Amino acid sequence: MLLDHLMRAVAAHPNIDVFAPARVTDVRAEDGCVRAVVVTLPDGTTDEIPTPAVLLATNGYGADHAAVVEHAPEIASAVYHGSEYSTGDALAIGTRLGAEARFLDAYQGHAALSKKAATLVGWATVMHGGVVLDSTGRRFGDETTGYSEYAAQLAARPGSEGWLVIDREIHDRCLAFTDFRQTVESGAAVWADDAAGLAAATGLPVDAVVDETAAVGRYARGEDSDPFGRNSFEHEMVGPYAAVAIVPALFHTQGGLVVDGHARVLRTDGSPIDGLFAAGGAAMGISGHGASGYLAGNGLLPALGLSFLAADAAAASLDLQRTSS
Predict the structure, then answer these.
(1) How confident is the model at residue 112 (pLDDT cuts 50, 70, 90)?
(2) What CA–CA distance (Å, rounded) separates 157 from 154?
(3) Which helix (H) or strand (E) holds 319?
């Protein structure tokens, strides 16, 4: 909805030209200042457009699997679930011009993408008491650490996949979420009256599933402590149980070009590249390293916030140039 609104506003503005699906593929600079932008058209031809300012907003590099292997190997075996155009163009352009990049290992992941439907099962399932089993039928960590952090843990399990187990109460509560409803409507959930039946429905080892569901019941009742440190089980799950086959997903990378408080791209010596700005996944963001620093909204914050800062700085620079001339 946000993107649709912005596109409508851009299309209606008399001073804005839209060149999509042309792509920015390079930026020309002379004497340390931006002079032009190079765009590549769908037929492979290029055009050079003179400009004193360029905002790089091409997201991160999540669609470039080789780059993911290099910078964020812990999530490289996950399914990429982001834009096919997030190939690291801004990172390549900026570094060619001498820019510094940081936190390239930062990303947003998700541990509960439906293997069958490629829809999000949703982490509310876990927060209401659900658990994740790997392909051996065993739990392997504290699921409440977060959906982004848990993606790498699931990716490290045998086959890089697992099952999210819930009961009827959790199922009914989560129907309020569109992603979960879409998953259910796809037929991705399998049901069974008891743990042994769930093992049969999922193909998991029966002893492991029976042991794990019994143990989770004890943790929920406060009769035992979870060896992984989870201390939040909203309620004790009871049959019938549902399970959804899940795979870990990479949504987008969070690291990128270093920028200052005006969204200006900085060189390795800390000086700005005049006229070059970065926002969103093209900039380094505030997430820190890996998935642990990700919080909901960390993608939108640098996308919208840095874009406003870049626009203000570019406008002020152009006004100064006009005054000086």
Answers:
(1) very high
(2) 5
(3) helix 306-324
Q: Report whether 124 contacts 307 (CB < 8 A).
A: no
CA dihedral 309, 315, 317, 323 (to 10 degrees): -150
Dist CA 66 CA 54 (whole Å): 27
pTM higher than 0.85, yes or no? yes
211 closest CA partner among 137, 158, 144: 137
For residue range 189-223, list pLDDT tens digits in order. Answer: 999 999 999 999 999 999 999 999 999 999 999 99
Q: Could you tell me if 290 and 68 are in contact, meaning their C-beta atoms sit under 8 angstroms apart?
A: no
**Residues in Cβ contact with 211 at an 8 Å cutoff, skipping those fewer than 6 apart:** none
Q: Is the pLDDT of residue 38 over 80?
A: yes
At residue 200, the 3 state secondary structure works out as helix
Q: What is the pLDDT of residues 83-98, one digit of tens each?
A: 999 999 999 999 999 9
pLDDT of 6 reads: 86
Q: Which of 143, 71, 67, 87 is nearest to 289 (CA)?
A: 71
Residue 207 structure tokens: 């002893």
Q: Which residues pair with 277 in a beta bridge?
A: 55, 264
CA distance 78 to 161: 9
The helix (run of H) or strand (run of E) holding residue 201 is: helix 195-202
Question: In this structure, what DSSP letter does residue 259 have?
Answer: B
What is the C-alpha separation between 79 and 174, in angstroms, rounded?
A: 24
CA 115 – CA 183 distance, rounded (Å): 10
Dist. CA 167–CA 273, nearest whole Å:
55
Closest CA to 63 of 84, 93, 90, 89: 84
The Cα 11–Cα 14 span in angstroms is 8
State mean pLDDT over 27-47: 94
d(CA 142, CA 145): 6
Strand pairing class (79-80; 241-253): parallel
Mean pLDDT of 256-263: 96
Please tell me whether residue 130 adopts helix, strand or coil conformation. Answer: coil
